[in-house]
Amino acid sequence: MKSLAWLLFGGVIYIILAGGLSPWTQLPTLGDTGFTLVFLAFSIVHCAASIGWKRTGLFFAVTAVISYLLEEIGVRTGWIYGAYHYSAMLGAKLGDVPILIPLAWFMMIYPSWIVARALLRGVDAHSAVGICSYAVIAAIVMTAWDAIMDPGMSAAGNWIWERGGSYFGVPFQNYFGWLLTTFLVYVGAGLLWRKERDGTVNGNLFAALPVMVYAFYGLSYMTPRPMPALQIVAFFAMVMPGLLALMRLFLSVSQFDDET
Hints:
By secondary structure, this protein is mostly helical. It is 66% helix and 4% strand. It has helices at 2-20, 31-51, 53-77, 100-119, 128-155, 173-192, 209-219, 230-250, 253-258, and strands at 84-86, 93-94, 97-98, 159-161. It is globular, with a radius of gyration of 18 Å.
C-alpha cells in the first residue's frame, strides 16, 4: 500500500508542478476533476497506510457527510459561506452540490490534518483539550489553503459568488464557513481516533508526504499568476506552515534540548 501511496504522491506532485510551470510551458495534465481524483486517491491510500482502512473509512464518511450537508445548506440559504452557486463545470450534482465537492474536501482535509498534527506534535491527541487544539489548528491550516485556491477556482467559473466579495471577489464569510466546517470534521475525526494509538505522525519520510504536498502546492503559487498578490498569501499561509511542520517532523525535541 505504501508503494501505491508513493506512486500517487508522484502523480500529485507532477500535476501541481505542471500548473506551476504553465506560464512557461504546457505539460500534459488532467484538469481540475482529474487532479481532484488523483489527489483524493493519494489522501485515502496514505491515510489507510498510516491508520488502517477502518479508521480511514470513518474519517472519509465524517468528512463527506458534514461537508456535503453544510455545502447544500450553504448553496440553498447563503448562511454559511455567503451567497453562491455551482456551475456545471464540476460535473453531476447531488441536490445543488457537485458530487466531486465532498471528495475534494477529503482531498484537502487529510493533508491539512497531518500538517496540524506535525505542528502540534507532542500534544495529547486523546484529551478533549488536545482534540479541540488539533481541530482549531487544522481548521486554520485548511482554510489557509482555500484562501489560495478559491479566488482562482471561482474566477474560472467553477462556482459563482452572487454578490462578489472584497477578497479577490470572495466574501470574507466564506472563510468563517470553512473554519466552521473543518472544525466540525476534525472534532469528529479526533473523537473517532481518541482511543486509538497515534500512527499518523512519526517523523519518517512516508509520514511527511502529505505535508510535502501541502507546502509544494503553496510553493507552486510563487510562479506568475493572474492574481500576483496571491504569491505573498501563499508563501505565508501555506509554504511557511508547511516548512514548520516538516521541521517539527524531523527535528525532535531532544535535539533542541541538547543545544541548550
